[in-house]
Amino acid sequence: MKIAMGNDHAAVEMKQEIMAYLREKGYEVLNLGTDSSESCDYPLYGEKVGQAVASGEADLGIAICGTGIGISLAANKVPGIRAAVCSEPYSAKLSRMHNDTNVLCFGARVVGTELAKMIVDEWLSAEFLGGRHQRRVDMIMAIEKEAKGAMER
Ligand code: RB5
Description:
By secondary structure, the chain is of the alpha/beta class. It contains 6 helices and 5 strands. It binds D-ribose.
């Protein structure tokens, strides 16, 4: 499985730790984030991760900024992306099981590295349940489709 990772300056070390952790576990990781501590703009990296996942270049994405919020907002603007900020493992797991999230976000200034690893583990090992949850995810995606149609009209 290939995972696209993106981050801004606030999350360089966290990205590097999680990237190494995932590689140790056998995942292929695409590093789309910055490796510099110089201030930069998180929307660029949220978009990069979103595009890698939406295009199929990566199977899933992990995007990290200071809080996880800005980068998740950016990733969610890429059609087909369902990104969620999760600061603990329960939400991460349920975001896969119920919401079929394809991008996980968290904040390097919010969670520590060990908690982040647990969040990532729960997210990656959970599976989408489908059924009534599929109907609801379809409803979310229909909003995106409707908005796109309205813009083209
Ligand atoms: C950068 O200072 C910070 O705003 C960013 O990492 C993130 O937390 C935004 O949501």
